[in-house]
Amino acid sequence: MKICGLTEEGAALAAVEAGADFLGFVFAPSRRRLEPASARAIIAAVREKSGPDRVRAVGVFVDEPAERVDEVAAYCGLDYVQLNGDEDPAYVRRLAMPAIVARAASASLTSEALAAFAEAAALYLVDAYSPTERGGTGRRCDWAVAANLAATLPIVLAGGLTPENVAAAIAAVRPCGVDVSSGVETDGRKDPAKIAAFVRRAREAEAQLAGLPAGNLPSPYGRPTRTRTAVQSRSPLQGGAGRPIWSAAACRRFRQQLVGQGGGKPPPAKAQASLRTPEPETGTGGTTACC
């Protein structure tokens, strides 16, 4: 479960208190864009108050040079980088950090296209399509497309999710996880009550699919190492009619397969206390904003 587009320490702490697994920080052109120094301060404060192993921090990037992504990730203390641009598998393999590859749901998005990232990506995120933005639009993702992908791949569902529809989305798509940003905002700011409601209803829906009492599901992801191995097996728990149920246990097994203990890259060297921040750049293909 990921709360994305965080810009304030209070909202980040509210997400952790609610039970979110991931906190997302946007470094691409967006109204939610953060300078690396601000994200670093929020992440450090959250880990100090909640414990170093409680939260996983994700940085969202769009078509940045790989070296810049690694630099920001090391400086901020990120655990994952999320790629919302046109990055290809070769680009992802160059990164020092585990990557979440984000793509817009469309008829042309197939499991075969995403499988090209299998040896490089930790997870896949499917979001709503927009011709001008790379996430954070509040538009609902095409659940039918996402469900087809989730039948064989560990998909995180994003796009237009809210506390009111997240349970239905989980039942329809059966994703490995869910991601929300604008759906837990009020007047453009993260709303702690909406965050809590979103996490609670998502956990209840996941527990119902897994046949467990609400509250009995562990977090699906352990704190990641910074090395990667290829997926050797794709065998999620099976639900009715052969549909997978991406339970916490199934996702945890994928996490262990996708982020192994050897054969990957060493963690990036710690960045210095100062970090040059370039001017914002627009993405390719006319993209002007993200998350």
Kindly identify the CATH topology: TIM Barrel
Secondary structure tally, helices: 9
Large-scale geometry: globular
Tally of domains: 1
Q: How much of the sequence is in beta strands? A: 15-25%
Q: Can you say what the CATH homologous superfamily is?
A: Aldolase class I
CATH arch. level architecture: Alpha-Beta Barrel
Mean pLDDT: 78
Low-confidence stretches are: 216-250, 252-274, 277-288
SSE succession: EHEHEHEHEHEEHEHEEEHEEHE
Q: Alpha-carbon distance between the termini?
A: 16 Å
- Radius of gyration, in angstroms, nearest whole number: 17 Å
The helix fraction, in percent, is 25-40%
**Biggest sheet, strands in spatial order?**
1-2-3-4-5-6-8-9
Sheet of most strands = 8 strands, parallel, barrel
Which structural traits does this protein have?
eight-stranded parallel β-barrel, globular, 291 residues, TIM Barrel, single chain, two-stranded parallel sheet, 32% helix, alpha/beta, 14 strands, 9 helices
